[in-house]
Design a protein that fits this description.
Elements: H1 2-6, E1 15-18, E2 22-29, E3 33-40, H2 42-47, H3 49-59, E4 70-75, E5 80-85, H4 92-96, H5 99-104, H6 107-127, E6 132-133, E7 142-144, E8 150-152, E9 159-160, H7 191-207, H8 214-219, H9 221-224, H10 242-257, H11 269-277
Helix pairs in contact: 6-7, 6-11, 7-10
């Protein structure tokens, strides 16, 4: 098999990352170019085959520029792995955590990443049938290509919303700090769970780190109004000019509306994507 030969049966020299579920390898195949192979640990594959199936079911047939492409998969007694496009710059989290890399991520690149994630989620919620809720939107699960375009990845706990079902989940899953508060007591999965996580992520991209306790303050319009813009911006970047500042304030307000406690009061991803796509964030090409 091409993958086994190319990775020399998953030799450590091809490994680019490890996690709780398994390891990720990268190789170059003549037919596909650079690819990433997510190989599940045998113990994980045996006990969490649902995660593997989820990812395949969610990604098969999906074609969107802001969602990582699944080329194929293998599941047998020896191996369980997924074959993806290789996304060059790795996770958004690792870039934001790096003092040098984060400075290359200027305001306009960050705005574009926020837009890309919103387009991906709008597509999953609005254009897929049945709709798909990702359930684990975080900076670790957004990859960046060579042009800093966002790719949403890791659909291991994604849920396909069935119209004839109540869509409850049996266990609370997701990444701490991004999980919608209602999931702790209703366990009902809706698109609004992703909307909440998107709000947290968008603010993190602008701040350069997770906002922690600021999230609660931003969710409430009365406390939000007393916050300083400088508290919400990444101090590693130059302070934005008036035009970019206007765009960032618009995004901060939109992201904050995703954090309200009542799920039905949050905007849909379709609405958010529309607002962001109609917003002009390009730099001025002339002086008045």
């Amino acid at each position: 098999m091409d993958i086994l030969n190319a990775t020399e049966e998953f030799d450590a020299t091809f490994c680019i990352g490890q996690g709780g579920q398994g390891s990720v390898y990268t190789v170059n195949l003549p037919s596909l170019g650079s690819i990433a192979v997510k190989r599940f640990h045998s113990l994980f594959a045996n006990t969490h085959c649902k995660s593997f199936t989820n990812e395949v079911n969610a990604l098969i047939g999906i074609k969107h520029r802001n969602i990582v492409k699944l080329f194929g998969f293998c599941s047998n007694a020896q191996h369980s792995f997924l074959v993806y496009e290789y996304v060059e710059r790795g996770s958004l989290f690792s870039i934001l955590s790096n003092e040098i890399e984060s400075k290359n991520l200027d305001w306009l690149k960050r705005v574009n990443i926020i837009k890309g994630v919103s387009f991906a989620l709008s597509y999953l919620h609005q254009d897929c049938s049945p709709p798909i809720v990702h359930r684990d939107i975080s900076s670790s699960n957004v990859l960046l290509d060579s042009e800093y375009e966002a790719r949403v990845s890791d659909f291991g706990i994604a849920k396909l919303l069935k119209p004839d079902s109540s869509n409850y989940c049996t266990t609370l899953a997701g990444t701490y700090g991004y999980v919608a508060p209602e999931l702790a007591y209703t366990m009902k999965v809706t698109e609004m769970c992703d909307v909440y996580s998107f709000g947290v992520l968008a603010l993190e991209i602008i701040k350069g780190s997770h906002l922690g306790e600021y999230i609660t303050l931003l969710a409430n319009s009365s406390t939000r109004d007393h916050m300083q813009l400088s508290d919400l911006l990444d101090g590693r970047l130059p302070y934005p000019d008036d035009r970019v500042k206007e765009v960032l304030v618009f995004i901060i307000n939109l992201a904050s509306s995703c954090l309200v406690e009542t799920p039905k009061s949050r905007p849909t991803m379709h609405f958010i994507a529309h607002k962001l796509s109609s917003m002009d964030s390009r730099p001025c090409t002339h002086h008045r």
